[in-house]
Structures
1.
Amino acid sequence: MSAFSYAALDEKGKQLRGVLEADSARQVRQMLRDKGWVPLAVEVAADGAVRSSGSNWSMRRGMNTAKLALITRQLATLVQSSMPLEEALTAVAAQAENNRIRSIMLGVRGRVLEGHSLAHALQDSPQAFPQMYRAMISAGEQSGHLDAVLERLADYTETAQDSGQQVKLALLYPCILLLVAMLIVIGLMTFVVPQVVGVFVDQDIKVIKKIRQICKLDIIQLHGNESPAFCQQLGGQIFKAIRLKGGSMIRQFADYPDDIKILIDAWDPVQTGGTGEQISFRLLDKIEDFSRIIIAGGVGEENVAAIVETYHPFGIDINSKIEKRPGIKDHK
C-alpha cells in the first residue's frame, strides 16, 4: 500500500485535504466517495503536490529541526525495540502532528513496502531529510546497525535543535533592546521634545497658514486683537493671548471655542507681551475655570509654585522672567 495525498469537498462544500493509504489512486477516490465527499485531486504523497481549484498544497516542503528530531527519536526507539521497519514507520506516521509530516512518513513507508531501502525511500523527500541524514541511514543499513545509527542521528538532531534555540535566544535579546530603544525614541519625539510655537500679532490669516505649513508649526500663539471667528477659521492648536485690564475682560474667554487655550498676561497699553510685569492675583481669583488657562506675566521661580498650587492652570509661561535681556534667555 502507498500513501496518497488528496483534496476533496465534503457534504457542505468545504475543501478538505489529507492523506490516505491505499493500493491505488482509484481506491482512494472510492474511499472518498464512500464518505460522501467529492474527490478533486489524488496523488502519491511522495511525488509532489496536490493541486486543486486555484490552490497549491505542496508535500515537498522542508521539515524543521524540532520535528525531524522528534521523528528520528521515535523511529530510533521503535527500531531498537525490534519492531519491523514498516510498522515503526506506520507508528511514527500515526503520531505525526499534521498531515504534511504524516504524508511524508506514509510515503516513505510505501516505498519501503515496495522493496526499497529506507535511505532510498527518504530520497523522495530531500527537503525534509538532508543529504547527510540520508547518507548516515544508508551507512547504517549497509552495515547492519541501523538502530545504532538512528540513535546517533536522534542525538545529533536534538543537539542541533538545542543549538538553534540558543542562537535564537541570543539574537532575541538585542532585538528586544533595539525595539525598546526605538519605542523610547518615538516616545521622546512624540511627548517630550518641545513643540514648535509660532507667535503672531494681528497678522493676515493667509500668511499665518503659509508660515505654519512651511515651518511645520505645532502651535499658533496670537497676541493681537484676533477675534474668536478668526481663531476658529485659522484652525489647529491655538493659544490666544489676552492682556487682562479688568474683570470684564474675563468674560471674553467664553467667546472663544473650548479647544482654544487662553494665555492671560499682565496689561500693557502698548506692548503685546514679554513685559515681565506681574499679573494681578485679584483678577486671577475671579476666574472660575483654569482648565484651558495659561498664566503669564511676571511668573518666575519665586512665585511659580504658589501659582500652580493655588490655581492649577493648564500651563505656565515664564519666558519673560528668565530673560537676561529681551529675547535672550538665561537657561541657568
2.
Amino acid sequence: MATNKETANVEKIVIRPFLTPKQDKSAGADFTIPINPESYAQSYKVEAKDKATGGNQGSAPEYKFTAPEQLKLDFTLDNTGTIEGNILNGTEVKDQVEQLLNVVYKMQGEAHKPAILKIQWGLFTFDCILATLDINYVLFKPNGEPLRAKVSASFTQYVEPKKRVAKEDKHSPDLFRSVRVADGDTLPLLCYKSYGDPALYMQVAYYNELVSVRKLRTDDELGFPPVKNTGTQKTS
C-alpha cells in the first residue's frame, strides 16, 4: 500500500470551468477528482454514408464529417476513510457531487449555458463540454446517506471556432471565406490558397467588382464565395 507521502505527490485530475471559448474568464472554482481513475478512454469517429454502386456488391462509403473526440472518465467519490490518497476524505459524498455538478453541469448565469471545461492530468489536457454524467450510489450510512458513488462522465471535445477553421484548413470551392489582402498578394495566389485553383481569379474579381486584377490594395477585404455563385454580383 502506498504511504501518505507517496500519494500526496500523485497528480490529480483537475477540471477547470470557463465562461468563454477563449478560456480567459473563469466560471468559478476548479473540481479536483479526489481519487484518480485507473484509466481513461478516448473515442474517435468518422461519419460516412454508404453510396451504392450499381451492379456491384457492397458500397463505396462517402465521407460526411469527423465527429468531435470523446473522453470518458470513470472515478469514485468516497467518504469511508478507507481509500488511500482521497483528498476529499471527510467531505460528505453528496457535497462532493454538488461540487462536481457546479463545475461541469449547472448553468452559468452569465453565459446562460454550462461551462466550457479544461481537463488536466499532468501533461494531458482536453478542452471540452460535458456530454453525459451518470452517478451510481453504491454504499450508504445506516441513515441512508451515501458513503460512496461511482461516477461515469463523458466529455465532447470543444475547439474554439477560429482555431477549428485554422486547423481544418479547408480549401473547398463550396465554402465562402473572407480574406484580408497582405503586401505582395496577387489574386491568382489568393485563389490558389482559397480554392486550390489560381485560374478562378477572374470570377473572384467579378464578384468583388475589382477595377484591376493586377494590383491589389493591402488591407482590403475580399470575398471568396462558393464557385457556383461567382457568376453573380454582390447585393448591397
3.
Amino acid sequence: MSESAPVNNRTESKAGKRVTSFNEGTGRLAAILLSPTLIVLALVVLYPIVSALRESLYTSGQRLDANGFIVKGSTFVGLDNYSAIFHGDTADRFWTAFYNTTFFTVVCVVLETVLGVAMALIMHKAFRGRSVVRAAILVPWAIPTVVSALLWKWIFQADGIANTLLGSQILWSTDGWQAKLSIIVADTWKTAPFIGLLVLAGLQTIPAEVYEAAKVDGASVLQTFRRITLPLVKPALLVAVLFRILDTLRIFDLPFVLVGPHKPSVETLSMLGYDEAFNTRYGPAAAYATVLFVYVAAVAYVFVKLLGADVIGEARAKKPGGGGRAQRKRDAALPAPAVGVTSVGGGM
C-alpha cells in the first residue's frame, strides 16, 4: 500500500501555510512602511474635510440671546446652510456660479484636449529644432497661474494688445460674455500643454513597427490616427482629461485675478465660497466647499466608471499575470511541488 498521497497532502499543506505566512508578513510590512504617509494624508486631507463638514453645520457671528444680549460665537443650525444655498436668497447666485463652473470646465477641457493632442503630435515628430519647439510649447504650463492671469490681464486691457489687434475697444474685464471669453482663452493657453505632455508620453510608448505596418497596408494618415494612435494613447489621454476636469472644477485664481470678484458672469463655486469666508461667514463658506467637494467627487466617479480611466493601475492587476492582490491569490492557490515523496511499504 502506498503512503505517497498523505505525505504529498501534508507537504502541500505546509507549503500553503508558508505562502500564507509570507503574504501576511509582507502585508504587515507594507502597512508599517505606508503608515507615515497615511498619517500625513489623514492630517492634510481627511481632517480638513471632516472639519469643513462640521463647520457647515454651524453659523458664526453675533446674535441675540433670550435676554436680548449680544452673543458672539458659533451656533448649531443643522442643514440650514445647505438649505439656504439651494432655496434661500443666495440660491440664484449659487446656481449662476454652478453654471459658470460647469461651463468653464466643459469648454476649456474640450479645447485643451484638442490643442493638447495636436501639440503632442507635433512634439512627437522628428524634425530639426524639435527640442526648441517642445520647450516653447511647455513654457505656458510652467508659468504660475497668477502670473499667467496678470499677463493676460495686461493683454486684455482697454489699450492692450488684444484690442489693438482686433481694432476694437472691448472691455474684457467687465461683466459679460467678453469676460468669459478672456478666461477661456487664458486657461486654454495655460493648460493645453499639460495634456500635450501626457499624450506625448503615451505616444512614445507606441512601437514604430506598428506605424510601418499600417503604412505598408496602405492606411491613410487619418486612418492611422483613428485606428492606431488614438486607441493606444487613450489611457494617458483619459487620465490627462480627468486631471484637467478636476482642476477646472476648482478654478479660482485665474478668474479672480484676470477679471475680478463679484462678477456674476465669471463667478465660480470656489470664488463664491471664498467670498463667504472673506466676510467671516464660515458656516455658509464651508457648506459651499462641501457641495463643491461632492460635485467634484461625483464627476470623477462618473468619468472613471463610464470612460474607464485607469488612474490607479486597476486594469493591470485584473489582467492575467498582473501584479498586486490578484497575483498573491494565484500564488497561494498554486499547489506546492512534491518534495521528498517516497513509496513506503508494499508499493506498486
